[in-house]
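Quick start: read one record
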Amino acid sequence: MRIVFAVLRVAAAAAIVVAVVGQFAKSLSMVPDAGFFVVNFFSFFTIQSNLIGAVVLAIGAVLAFRSSGDSDGFTLVRVCATAYLATTLVVYNTLLRDISLDQATTLPWSNEILHVWAPLYVVLDWVFAPGRQPVAWRRLWIVAIYPLVWAAYTMVRGAIVGWYPYPFLNPAVKPGVGYDGVLVYVVAIAAFILLVGAGVIALSRTSWPYRTTAAAPEPVGSDAAARTMG
């Protein structure tokens, strides 16, 4: 089963890379300021989360070919990647699907891979692929580090250059709302990411359908001693 998911991970990672490159090439050919465009393109949470997902899938494929289980550290990385891509799936399809984003013409097939199929696969991979380890609840806060850094970068850069990757982060989109309205969106999305992360961690702590667990230690006591002596 690990080999099957290794192959699927390679295919999914390749699809993400092709989708990102395809969209990048299409958009680059249609913009006048290539330098500004490149920074903008790689400032999208969708692009970043998908590239993170592609790297994690590629590493996961190598590990699946070589071993029967994932390390604790890699499992935690998978938790983060799964939470970010699940958030991309939900936020895009609930808030952004009918909004034209300012990155030139969108490639429909690339758009669907990056916003629907890649996130769906990563979620399904987390649920069904064997080898994940149980993740401690105290590590949930790690899931929030990257989104908070990205949000801070986005708002600071947006205030300097006057460009924001998503309309709900632009305080000038709705006059009178300003940064208070943006803060509501940021807090809501951060809370959602943590909620998704909690769900992902909860799944890691179940044995359904697959999970690699260490063998339980032999109990210390008279029964164990009796079995040893016998």
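The radius of gyration is 21 Å.
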